[in-house]
Design goal:
By secondary structure, the protein is of the alpha/beta class. 38% of the residues lie in helices and 15% in strands. It has 16 helices and 13 strands. Helix 13 links the parallel strand 12 and strand 13. The longest helix is centred in the middle third of the chain and has 20 residues.
Length: 375
């Protein structure tokens, strides 16, 4: 059992229930008394189990239109996370893809950071969010200066973590490259109790499926363009700032379904030919959910999704970020036969119970010496 410690949980922001929040849910179950510190909380955006917790926020939530435009306040995030006072806790557990890992623990506290990726907006994803095609040449140049400062700050606060836990080997490599630190890899939790295969005698699948936030780096445009090439029906679940642009790009065989609750998503997974994940993902929890429902996935070979499908054993990868490459991979995927039972078994290696068991083992390990910057 995990020793009783006064524990705080830190998460970047709470504006919906996606992969990062699924991790937070498991962490909250491991530490049922821990308050959650976050930059911003949009009330009602989380399952009741998380909404009922003590949630403490920063000043970001009080800024104009923060619920919708919070990313525009990125330059203020270092000040906001500094204001999250967790100094009275023995253990700090952060769930971070932006600034949560930079929270300042007390002098005698241990800080374990579950890192979904180093601060994506200023490292490997800067051009996707702030490149000339997004904000204009002059705007991008100005934001690049801002990003340089944020990168320097991000590196300077990396020593505040005693132990990094990465959600994939892909992310562990980024942590090593950007922060010079090693990370334990524990893949995110998948609700394999809920996501299960449908009946064997169901109707034959007649569509491919995308389940994603509609943001630039997800590269949903590749799936849409590949659907135009192949003529295959494509359903897109999710919403985001790219929706208008993607709708304008899509043909008649592409349908946008908006957000889907879990029950509807379960049916969509069960009924699809394959789950498509065109972007370079940190992990790709939707891939594991599709596998749990007995459906294969097509993923970018450069990201964490490739770790799930295991070099084509449980799906198909593509290497070139072009619609033609995705279309070819679709044909290759269709030509392969996949066992629903084997896909399901693969998904079970990412179960929530296994995640919580593995994370608990990290927490219960003897602390050992501090990292070099803390010595």
């Amino acid at each position: 059992m995990t020793k009783q410690r006064r524990t705080a949980l830190v998460h970047d922001w709470l504006t919906g229930f996606r992969g990062g929040e699924q991790v937070l849910l498991s962490l909250a179950r491991l530490f049922p008394e821990a308050p959650i510190y976050t930059l911003l909380h949009v009330k009602g955006s989380l399952p009741a189990e998380l909404e009922s917790r003590t949630i403490r926020t920063s000043f970001i939530g009080k800024l104009p239109f923060a619920a919708r435009l919070y990313r525009h306040y990125l330059p203020l995030f270092p000040f906001a996370v500094r204001g999250l006072d967790v100094r009275g806790f023995d253990l700090v557990v952060s769930s971070s893809h932006c600034v949560a890992k930079s929270v300042t623990p007390g002098d005698d506290a241990r800080h374990i950071s579950y890192c979904h990726t180093p601060m994506r907006y200023v490292w490997d994803r800067f051009d996707d969010y702030f490149g000339p095609a997004r904000v204009g040449r002059a705007g991008s140049a100005g934001l690049r200066i801002m990003a340089e400062g944020l990168r320097a700050w991000d590196v300077s606060t990396a020593h505040r973590v005693h132990q990094y836990v990465a959600n994939s080997e892909t992310v562990a490599a980024r942590i090593r490259y950007f922060y010079g630190r090693d990370a334990i890899v524990i893949h995110p939790p998948v609700d394999t109790d809920f996501f299960t295969p449908g009946p064997d005698d169901g109707p034959p699948p007649d569509y491919d499926l995308v389940v994603s936030a509609l943001v630039p780096y997800k590269r949903i445009d590749l799936a849409i363009d590949a659907a135009r090439i192949t003529g295959r029906r494509l359903l897109v679940v999710g919403n985001g700032p790219e929706e208008e642009r993607l709708r304008a790009r899509a043909g008649a065989n592409v349908e946008f379904l908006g957000a889907a609750n879990r029950d509807r998503l379960l049916g969509l997974y069960r009924g699809c030919r394959a789950l498509l994940l065109p972007g370079v993902e940190d992990f790709g929890i939707v891939v594991a959910e599709a596998l749990a429902c007995g459906r294969p996935a097509l993923v970018n070979a450069q990201g964490g999704g490739a770790e799930i499908v295991n070099d084509g054993e449980f799906g198909q990868t593509f290497t070139e970020p072009t619609a033609e490459a995705v279309a070819r991979a679709m044909s290759q995927l269709q030509a392969k036969g996949f066992s629903r039972l084997e896909l399901r078994k693969r998904a079970e290696t990412f179960s929530r119970a296994l995640f919580e068991q593995r994370f608990r083992a990290v927490v219960d390990e003897p602390q050992g010496p501090p990292p070099p910057h803390l010595a």
